[in-house]
Amino acid sequence: KPLPKESEEPGEAVAGSRADAGAPLALHEAGGAVEETGPKLLESRLNELQQRFQLTDQELKVMGLIRGGHSKPRIAAKLMLSENTIRGYAKSLYAKLGVHSKEELLDLIGL
C-alpha cells in the first residue's frame, strides 16, 4: 500500500493508487486490525447473497448496478440488453430475495 502523503490523514487512501481507482475506499480499525471497506467488501457481500439466494450471474450484475444507483434503462444500456429483460431480471431478483422495493434491496445488501 502506498504511504500517505503529508497532506493526508492517516487511514485515507491515495487517489489512483489502486486498480479499482475512482471507487471509494475507507479503512477503519476493528479490534486492532485494519479492515478494508468499499469495493472489495461490496463484491464479497454481493457474492455472499448470490450463494445464499442462488442468484444467476445476470441477477447479480443487475443487483450491483441497482445498488450503484443506476436506473433500469441505464442498466439495460450498460449490459446491452432490452429494458424488458432488465425488468425481468429485477423481478426475479426481488422475488428470490423476498424484497418488494429498491429500498428493501439496499437494506438487505447493507452497505
The biggest beta sheet reads: 2 strands, antiparallel
Number of helices: 5
- Can you write the helix and strand succession as a string? EEHHHHH
Average pLDDT: 77
Task: Please report which band the strand proportion falls in: under 5%, 5-15%, 15-25%, 25-35%, 35-45% or over 45%.
Answer: 5-15%
Low-confidence stretches: 1-35
Proportion of residues in helical segments: 40-55%
Describe the SSE topology.
Elements: E1 26-30, E2 33-37, H1 39-53, H2 57-67, H3 72-79, H4 83-97, H5 102-109
What do you see in this structure?
The chain is mainly alpha-helical. Helices cover 51% and strands 9% of the residues. It has 5 helices and 2 strands, in the order E-E-H-H-H-H-H. 10% of the residues are buried. The model is unreliable at 1-35 (pLDDT under 50).
Feature tags:
single chain; 111 residues; mainly alpha; two-stranded antiparallel ribbon; 5 helices; 9% strand; globular; disordered N terminus
Short description:
It is built from 5 helices and 2 strands. With 111 residues, it is mainly α. It has a two-stranded antiparallel ribbon with strand order 1-2.
